[in-house]
């Protein structure tokens, strides 16, 4: 065997081992999902008992039927959709123009403001919970969807600004200058040139905000009371509030059902995820 053949053999073996490693990692990440599927198809609420099996002895779809008939999961889904769509719309309406301004304009205090935004975004949101409650309570926004929308928008608008500002930085200024020479106004340049080029970053930002609102639990349970106001995260927790009264199969079935919309959205824009995330960073 020649030296070249040995190198090719070593390279092929290295690639094989790397693929096997990735397959093992993927399987490990899928184990909790497969476990939830198994529990949701189990006819018995025996998760905590000694006779529980990964492959149920008796399969049933009764748990999925209970999600739609016995529990207000659809009401929680509607509440979450209202919060998510409103938050995504407001976040994009605020962060897209702000990101463009911070990317293209050079004004006094620009760098300190960016650094302050990064500093504020690095703090855990739980630290501001008491202050937010004191601000919203006199306005009557506690236990309302509008209050949660304001909280979510204030939290994720910073992320949208910082992420899309980095993407706008990667768009060559010469493209805008060429459009300006051709007679395009600033509004036309932004709407017809910049925004179409920044579509991957805008889509990724929208999905990240959507996922945050979909999974957010802390503020939803703190500022909302009553099952009719619950979001999906808060409602799912209420299904399994206690290990004695809760039904693990119904909880698992509900968790899988409410995860499907996010999976559909994620796979729909998967091709934009890499460019939209890797290009989004804070630059001077």
What does this structure look like?
Helices cover 73% and strands 0% of the residues. By secondary structure, the protein is mainly α. Helix 4 (110-122) crosses helix 6 (145-170) and helix 9 crosses helix 13. It starts with a helix and ends in a 6-residue tail after the last helix. Mean pLDDT is 81; it is low at 278-284.
Structural descriptors:
single chain, 284 residues, mainly alpha, MetI-like fold, 2 domains, 13 helices, 73% helix, 0% strand, flat, disordered C terminus
In brief, what are we looking at here?
With 284 residues, the protein is an all-alpha fold. The protein is 73% helix and 0% strand.
State the total count of DSSP E strands. 0
CATH H-level name of the largest domain... which superfamily? Answer: MetI-like
Radius of gyration from the CA trace? 24 Å
CATH architecture of the largest domain: Orthogonal Bundle
User: Helix- and strand-based class?
Assistant: mainly alpha
For the record, the count of structural domains works out to 2
Shape type: flat
CATH fold-level label of the largest domain: MetI-like fold
Strand content: under 5%
What's the level 1 CATH class of the largest domain? Mainly Alpha
Secondary-structure element pattern, one letter each: HHHHHHHHHHHHH
State the end-to-end distance: 54 Å
Q: What's the helix count?
A: 13
Portion of residues within helices: over 70%
Q: If you average the pLDDT, what whole number results?
A: 81
* Main β sheet profile: none
Which stretches are poorly predicted, pLDDT < 50 over at least 5 residues?
A: 278-284
């Amino acid at each position: 065997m020649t030296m070249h053949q040995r190198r090719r053999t070593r390279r092929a073996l290295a690639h094989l081992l790397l693929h096997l490693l990735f397959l093992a990692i993927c399987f490990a990440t899928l184990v909790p999902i497969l476990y939830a599927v198994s529990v949701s198809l189990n006819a018995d609420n025996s998760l905590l008992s000694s006779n529980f099996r990964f492959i149920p002895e008796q399969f049933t779809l009764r748990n999925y039927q209970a999600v739609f008939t016995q529990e207000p999961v659809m009401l929680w889904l509607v509440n979450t959709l209202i919060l998510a769509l409103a938050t995504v719309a407001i976040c994009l309406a605020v962060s897209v123009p702000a990101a463009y301004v911070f990317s293209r304009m050079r004004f006094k205090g620009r760098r300190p403001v960016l650094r302050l935004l990064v500093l504020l975004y690095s703090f855990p949101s739980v630290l501001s919970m008491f202050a937010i409650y004191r601000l919203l309570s006199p306005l009557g926004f506690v236990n309302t969807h509008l209050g949660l929308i304001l909280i979510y928008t204030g939290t994720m608008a910073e992320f949208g600004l910082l992420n899309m500002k980095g993407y706008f930085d990667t768009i060559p200024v010469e493209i805008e200058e060429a459009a300006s020479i051709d007679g395009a106004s600033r509004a036309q340049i932004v709407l017809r040139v910049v925004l179409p080029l920044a579509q991957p970053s805008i889509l990724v930002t929208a999905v990240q905000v959507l996922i945050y609102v979909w999974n957010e639990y802390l503020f939803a349970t703190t500022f909302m009371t009553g099952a009719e106001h619950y979001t999906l995260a808060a409602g799912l927790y209420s299904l399994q509030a206690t290990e004695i009264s809760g039904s693990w199969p119904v909880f698992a079935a509900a968790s899988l059902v409410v995860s499907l919309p996010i999976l559909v959205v994620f796979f729909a824009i998967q091709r934009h995820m890499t460019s939209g995330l890797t290009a989004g960073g804070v630059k001077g």
